[in-house]
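Obj: model holo form, ligand = magnesium ion.
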Amino acid sequence: MGSRVLGEGVATGVPEGRRLERRRTPWRERLFQLSLGASLAVGVVFLGSLLTYVVVEAWPRLDFRILTDFPDIIDPTQAGAQSAITGTIWVIAFTALYCLPVGFLTAIHLEEYADRHRWYNRAIEINIQNLAAVPSIVYGILGLGIISRGLGFGQTVLTASLTLSLLVLPTVIIAAREAIRAVPQSIREASLALGATQWQTIWRQVLPAAVPGMATGAILALSRAIGEAAPLLLLGGLTFITFNPTGLDSAYTVLPIQIFNWISQSRAEFAPLAAAAIVILLVILLAMNSLAIWLRNRYSRRW
Amino acid sequence: MSSEIPPTAQTPTTPGAAGEPPSASPGDSGNGTLTPQVSFRDAPPLAGPVFEVGSLSVFYGAHEAVRDVNMTIGDRQITAMIGPSGCGKSTMIRCFNRMNDLIPTARVTGKIRYHDQDLYGRDVDPIEVRRRIGMVFQKPNPFPKSIYDNIAYGPRVGGFKGNLDDLVEETLTHAALWEEVKDKLKTSALALSGGQQQRLCIARTIAVEPEVILMDEPCSALDPIATAKIEDLMEHLAQEFTIVVVTHNMQQAARVSHRTAFFGSDVDDKGERHGRLVEYDETARIFSNPSDPRTEDYISGRFG
Ligand SMILES: Nc1ncnc2c1ncn2[C@@H]1O[C@H](COP(=O)(O)OP(=O)(O)OP(=O)(O)O)[C@@H](O)[C@H]1O
Ligand SMILES: [Mg+2]
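Output (holo structure tokens):
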């Protein structure tokens, strides 16, 4: 059939529909491109003005004392956010320590071992997806009722990090599962066909290939936890803390809550302080997200 | 490596003893050109069968994909499996190293004897089975690691205690790949061409010194030159290994195999398709004088 059409073309000259000149872009396509550009602009402008506003607000207090001084309710000019910064680091470090091993192992189990056709595995899967959508304040209530009061851990770093672990665990699991699932089945088959055990296959082939994706997801999940204020409001983060945490049983505060605290003060001098703390929080978040992007680009594999 | 020939093998009678098929031309050893003049390989008698398949059926869930297959696969021969798409060739070949175990819905009934053992016996370890019976897949699937690590992977997971460097060199030489890659052993296997990747996959398989190599359409993603190289390699390897190869390429089956199994499919009264072994014989016979009209139709291209 192809040759017949070609023959026709030769016989009758190039038909109208087959000219090579560039046609005018149809208006639908233009409209589409325009709306793409517009959406991008909205995002960039919004982020840009937010950053500018915060930095301008924070400028008077964007100095080293914000890092070295402790909150001071009497004299805002003497106040810093050190206890909140160290509190954030403590809480997030222990959150990572609890939720990453559990999350990764759960993901490996669900992807590599669990039989997807069993109803209980499907139930677990749906459950995890729903848990990821539960509002964080609900985790705060859970933490207050069960971890803080029920287990008697009180308003401590331990309670906060356990609660945040539960909060981000579904996200960590889902991201890790995606990364594991992205490893082609042909790699597993190749390994098994060489007489490797399932464990060897996972440990030597699947995980090395999936780890960058798992790490990226984990960092993004943790950076969500860093910005959380709601559950910690219920868990004692709001108490006025002028010292760094000394252990898991220590009282604590974290950056989002310190910001909340300062903003709700009536005196105007606290506003730049809050803005400066926001800048610090944003810097931490941007650093973590950059690390995630770098990891993804550095170790992304082609098959 | 050549000293590792399994002791079970009773060496088949010397090649040529089984009677030359009429169309054989001794010079042509399957060089990839699609000449109609094909030389068939001699099929020595089935001395010391490696596999004996008895009333084998494979189910996916309730669907019987392969029904009642009986065949015997000879030691150090190349056995080709041909047939239309969907008739269960891959399903069948994956039974030989228990790869179907990995598909939760798959179920095998009937018997496969591997030498004197029941391959699906209760106390048989599928891991051990796959160490003896290697597999090469349709799409080259090297690990995203260096060439060296690809070869060394099987021996490493198998607990190889010896000089890996020597083993890698020996294996690559054996697979006729050494000259091409000896200067870049530490570079990624993914940087090789498709044909080289597939030969690397074959090399990786023989590095664990299996007895049998199963190949499921090993050349279907390759160009004719790369295909010819793999066919040469198969013939070379058939001196030591038993090879079962699924192929859609008639010339390939005719060129390289000693015996050919033709699979077709039946439709039952419920409208379900079941793969069946239609005819299994010496390759020369299958291609020149098949006894089943379906085989003849398929080979002469009258049938999908
Ligand atoms: N994992 C699976 N689950 C369910 N059914 C399957 C599965 N794999 C194969 N089948 C079915 O089994 C039958 C045989 O498939 P198989 O892949 O063995 O055919 P084939 O002869 O290798 O085909 P091709 O030449 O296209 O590779 C088909 O009907 C197919 O749909
Ligand atoms: Mg197939």
